[in-house]
Design a protein that fits this description.
about 60% helix, about 450 residues, mainly alpha, 23 helices, 3-stranded antiparallel beta sheet
Length: about 450
Amino acid sequence: MRSLWKDRIPFVFLFAIKTSVELFQEKLSQTTIQHLQGAQFEVAHLDIHSIFQATMAPNSRRSFWLGPGLSNLILQAQQDSIQSIASFTRSLQYAHMTFFFANPLSILLADSIATGPLQDEIYECVRNLESFRLYAERLLEQDNVDKARRILNDNTFLHAEVIKGIRRGKETLNTLIGAVERLRSMQANLGLKTTESWSALYIKALVGELQDSASVRDTLLAIRKLPSDAMASLLDSLGDSIPEMATLNEELRTMVSTTGGTVPLRSEHDTKHESLRTTVVAQKVELSKHSSSLSKQDLVYSKLVNRVNDVLRDYFHQSLVNPQELFLREVLIFDLKSPHREVFMPKPRYAIERALTSPRDYLGCDCCTGAEYGLSATHPATSVLYQLYLESGAIVNISDLWSAFYTIFGTENADDEDAEQERVLALFSRALAELKYMGMVKSSRKKADHLAKVLWNGL
């Protein structure tokens, strides 16, 4: 088969060899080696997390963010089947395109929303959102019955609330993603043994599980153990992005300059201030931790470290809120997975089985629609033969299959029965050849006039 097409279609075979070249050469004949064109190369590492980070980075002009479910689907598909950067980029672009074409509420993010009212159907869609229901319940819990009644009955008032909700939601999500970036930056500067990628932190943050996660606790614990030189480097990297950090950085520099020593200051949380003490009680050895006394400079530095820890803890607590509780989160966070899964994760076998079982779904013609239930001669011949194929057992008699097929497609009282039989036989032969081509049947080795089923519907 390949020899018929090699002069028109170029064929390239790639072999992944997990052995040395010498051993591989010994296994092949000299004739085979002469036809090989070997080349040694390494697969380039695709840093998809940096691309995803650049796409989802906080930006004042960003309209919406990809949800945790859709983001995990895109990243997991890249890990399961290694694709090129262009393929990964196209998947992100398609997700953004789907947001505007598959989400009617995306019109709420347009700049023109502030200039005039919208259609009444848009306001009804907003009132059917889960986040709207939660927002109304919070108003009732706060005894703000008048406002809850107005957002239900007054479209003009709801329009103003939507504008406020979109603006506040964008600010909250930008702050949330900014906190994710600073957390990932601190983890990289601290050199923690177990760190998560930016994408994993992003997904946790949008689910609402990052605020009290082990990532935040481990990072704060590592910061409390930093010496003064490492702490200064950390505060320099944060700059003025977090309130009060610039003031604490100046205090640290002043403290280090007044000591005048070359040895960095260490806090009370540093493990170097602890030592193990061994005692023998009743012929049993007991180990206990003993903390050495701190110098005056270390005590002052420990207080500053505690202040840094408190500021960072409050910052993460205020920034890493649960976005699932935001008003209009369905508009700001796009998490619809079905369009992306249908395009980038196709199911060819399911599509073929559906086309053969229900050809009307793809053809849309009147002949197939009229014969929606049961077998009919208006259906394609391959579809009818496939239906008969499903009703048979593991081994199919070709003669019985032909008789049932002729019963459906044959014309009673035909003027020329031989011509009619030849016409139906041509349809039967072509349909059977197509089923063999798709790998559904094959010739039986036990009986020459029988076919063996290879595939079962849905399995």
